[in-house]
Design a protein that fits this description.
Blueprint: E1 6-11, H1 14-22, E2 31-34, E3 42-45, H2 47-50, H3 60-66, E4 71-74, H4 77-92, E5 98-102, E6 105-109, H5 120-134, E7 141-146, H6 149-156, E8 164-166, H7 172-178, H8 189-197, H9 203-207, H10 211-229, E9 249-260, H11 263-283, E10 286-296, E11 301-312, H12 315-325, E12 334-342, E13 345-346, H13 356-375, H14 402-411
Parallel strand pairs: 2-4, 7-8
Antiparallel strand pairs: 1-6, 1-7, 2-3, 5-6, 9-12, 10-11, 10-12, 10-13
């Protein structure tokens, strides 16, 4: 079997750099991106902010302590999505086997196509040049080259920003041994904590563990995973968008930055999340007949669901069902709300509207979707949401819904 050649392309400090690209006055300055106005979590930091120690997931007040000059901006998700589409289109020209790993990351298997671009290095440099010429001169990416996905992603993290690094079979173990356990994709905090608890805090120690020992402590699946990761082994394929399985459910959750005590504002949030969930389904050309609702206060949680006989993709109907589910709940002091639409299928199975009022509603919903797609989310929205800070779609790879984004990108 011929050796694979995988590129991992990672846009540097994506959200913050996108703002600096479109607003040159921000270039060279520390910038932090918040989910929205009033939110306190930094979801992205510019290269300049990172030099002060500002990190993704940090509270805004902590970022201010580290860097008093940091400029905090609300996220502009429409802008980021537009750049992502152009980024993906660049990557797809180098191989049909291109996996969108998140909104700012792609894996490209160029094993069969690198010969048309004068090799992997030339291919990588061309991607960097096109990123600047086709998206913006301030946009940079780090690219890792290796013979599997695991090592290609690790390679892209070696030099940032604007780096290019190759991991071969000759230097793979050396690079792994210089890396922290959490530096490797697929080794999360839970596994890390368990490993450290066993006295295994680096890759050389993990490599000394037998499969029997690992199986005893982690089970058959994770033992083999850890055994392979410690040796740089990864046979997983690069998965093009067309091969991504259909979503089984769509959902939207939201944790408020203050306690909601008025029933009216709680219902507004619920309606908002119903619109978000239904919109996700429609964008993927899906509909569902399972409705779930979760509400949580600081002391108690509530959960309920309904299974329907017919499929829906309408935010208003979803909201009406959520109101029925929560009818007996004491709706006050809410901090968290989540809405789910499950048992999904293609929207060709939606019942054909027979009544004129149902047909008007379907036509109205389709028209609103087209307007919002052209002019931006919530250009038109339910009057019930007037007077509130509308919860908008999240597209960030860490905080958002990756399955939705990938299904959406595949269908569009």
């Amino acid at each position: 079997m011929p050796k694979r050649i995988i590129l991992h392309v990672d846009l540097n400090s994506f959200f913050a750099t996108a703002e600096q690209q479109t607003n040159p006055s921000l270039r060279g300055k520390p910038v932090g991106i918040l989910k929205a106005i009033g939110r306190t979590c930094v979801i992205a930091a510019s290269v300049e902010a990172k030099k002060y120690g500002v990190k993704t997931g940090m509270a805004a007040f902590e970022a201010k302590k580290l860097c008093s000059a940091i400029i905090l901006l609300p996220a502009d998700f429409d802008k980021y999505a537009d750049i992502t589409y152009r980024f993906i289109n660049i990557c797809k020209t180098y191989s049909p086997t291109c996996e969108v790993f998140s909104l700012d990351e792609c894996f490209i298997d160029i094993s069969e196509t690198e010969k048309f671009f004068n090799g992997a290095l030339a291919c990588a440099f061309e991607i960097k040049d096109r990123l600047k010429s086709e998206i913006g001169d301030f946009m940079t990416c780090s690219i890792g080259i290796s013979h599997n996905r695991l090592l290609a992603k690790l390679a892209s993290s070696q030099i940032k920003p604007d780096g290019l690094f190759t991991i071969t079979e000759d230097n793979a173990l050396e690079i792994l041994d210089q890396s922290d356990l959490l530096d490797v994709c697929g080794l999360g905090f839970g596994l890390y904590t368990h490993l450290v608890g066993l006295g295994i805090d680096n890759f050389p120690k993990l490599r000394l563990c037998s499969l029997y020992f690992l199986n005893k402590h982690f089970g058959s699946y994770w033992s083999l995973h850890l055994y392979n990761v410690s040796r740089g082994i990864d046979n997983s394929p690069v998965m093009p968008l067309a091969e991504i399985p259909d979503a089984k459910s769509v959902s939207r959750t939201y944790t408020t930055h203050r306690l909601l005590t008025k029933k009216e504002e709680i219902l507004k949030l619920m309606r908002n999340l119903c619109e978000e969930t239904a919109n996700k389904a429609r964008q993927m050309n899906l509909c569902g007949r399972y409705v779930g609702l979760a509400l949580r206060s600081s002391q108690k949680s509530y959960w309920g669901h309904r299974t329907l006989k017919t499929y829906i993709d309408d935010g208003k109907r979803l909201f009406d069902l959520c109101c029925q589910i929560s009818q007996s709940w004491p709706i006050d002091h809410v901090r968290f709300c989540g809405v789910t639409l499950g048992m999904l299928t293609k929207n060709q199975y939606l019942p054909i509207p027979l009544l004129p009022s149902d047909k008007r509603q379907l036509d109205l919903m389709s028209t609103i979707d087209r307007i919002n797609k052209r002019f931006g989310d919530y250009t038109i929205f339910p009057a019930q949401l007037l007077g509130m800070d509308i919860v908008r779609p999240e597209v960030n790879g860490y905080f958002g819904d990756r399955k939705f984004r990938l299904n959406f990108l595949r269908n569009n």
